[in-house]
Amino acid sequence: MNTELVVIDEKNIDDAAKASIDKAGNIIKSGGLVAFPTETVYGLGGDALNKHSSEKIYAAKGRPSDNPLIVHVSDMDALTKIVKEVPEAAKKLADAFWPGPLTMIMNKTDAVPYETTGGLDTVAIRMPNNKIALELIKASGGYIAAPSANTSGRPSPTVARYCVEDLSGKIEMIIDGGQVGIGLESTIVDLTSDEPMILRPGYITADMIKEVLGKVSIDKTIIDSTSTLKPKAPGMKYKHYAPKGELTIVQGPMEEVIKYINDKAACAKKSGKRVGVIGTDATKDKYVADIVKSLGDREDENTIAHELFKALREFDDDKVDIMFSESFDDNGIGQAIMNRLLKAAGHNVIVL
Ligand code: AMP
Ligand code: MG
Q1: Residues of the chain with pLDDT under 70
Q2: How many A from CA of 14 to the centre of ligand 2?
Q3: Residue 186 CA, closest ligand 1 atom number
Q4: What string of DSSP letters covers 297-322?
Q5: DSSP summary character for residue 284
Q6: Where exactly are the structural domains of the chain?
Q7: Is-cis flag, bond preceding 101, omega within 30?
């Protein structure tokens, strides 16, 4: 299949851009797939209400079909058709955070095929905060099922180049809307039981949700990596976000972390391995390795979140065999950063 690549500037959606979005909308309406930018990561979109589209999404990504897709909408009215009822909590959270990086789980109607929800009676819904995405949803008939636009198991794409790398030849179109703003996937909150529960941490933190709803719990399997419980969000059980090389997170006093990583890097280099290190602005000059990447200022968590998947992908591009990363604080958005980093490392952590 020939994959058409179009470039659209989110800040200037002119007539040519509108025509491209209409074309993309028609592709989705007729059962095809389009990769598009959102504010979190790039999405791989198909018609959420067409089971064949969802099957194609799983096939293009190589994603296990019991790992449900998020349905993207562009207005609140769209919910009526796809959920049995809109819980009060959902209205409040939508008021506060939509369009934005929050996905809500509700009870689905028959309009949503089980192929989209991985066999579940619930559906995950989000309204993305990106003009291209919102226009595309409208042009596609209102409901786009979209997981991240990467091959299953690889780090989520934050630039269109990585969608091209993973999906070229497998889908009809890729819309390049530049680098995404947030760089980590949405927070997922389950609203199908009395107590709202966070199933995946993201940019919208537990404290932000608590401020709106007064309460929220967090799925234990997110915080406790040794837990043998089954995560409530099916996707969380899979090894995700994995770079091709082997990643180890090193925790402890910073001087010791630097010494440990440099010792290990020297050993690995001796045996002919290419070594990469993920540090921060304050430490990057202290490492000796083939490639050292800074995720930015340690205090600036938004930048760290934004740079993480990009750094992991770049290590792949540079054919790095072994990687070490510093650890980050587990508060606020730091919880999402550490959740993704731990998954990328397959929970391989050294505590000094
Ligand atoms: P992705 O699209 O790759 O960001 O992944 C979407 C994730 O949302 C899935 O991997 C699931 O973990 C989660 N999810 C989607 N639908 C549901 C649902 N109905 N119930 C619980 N989790 C869900
Ligand atoms: Mg994903």
Answers
A1: 223-229, 236-240
A2: 30
A3: 4
A4: -TT-HHHHHHHHHHHHHHHHHTT-SE
A5: G
A6: 4-222, 246-351
A7: no
Q: Where are the beta strands (DSSP E) in 217-267?
A: 217-218, 246-251
- Output the pLDDT for position 237: 64
What is the CA(183)–ligand 2 centre distance, in A?
12
Token couple for 74: 């562009």
Tens-digit pLDDT profile for residues 218-261: 988 776 666 666 777 777 666 567 788 999 999 999 999 999 99
The candidate with the shortest Cα–Cα distance to 245, out of 228, 263, 268, is: 268
What fold characterizes domain 4-222?
Answer: DHBP synthase (3.90.870)
Task: Please list, in sequence order, all residues whose beta carbon lies within 8 angstroms of the beta carbon of residue 351, skipping any fewer than 6 positions away.
Answer: 251, 252
Helix (H) or strand (E) holding 54: helix 51-61
Atom 23, ligand 1: which residue's CA is nearest?
Answer: 233
Predicted TM-score (pTM) of this structure: 0.92
Q: Which fold has domain 246-351?
A: Rossmann fold (3.40.50)
Short-list 29, 34, 25, CA closest to 1: 34
The strand pair at 144-145 and 173-176 is best described as: unpaired
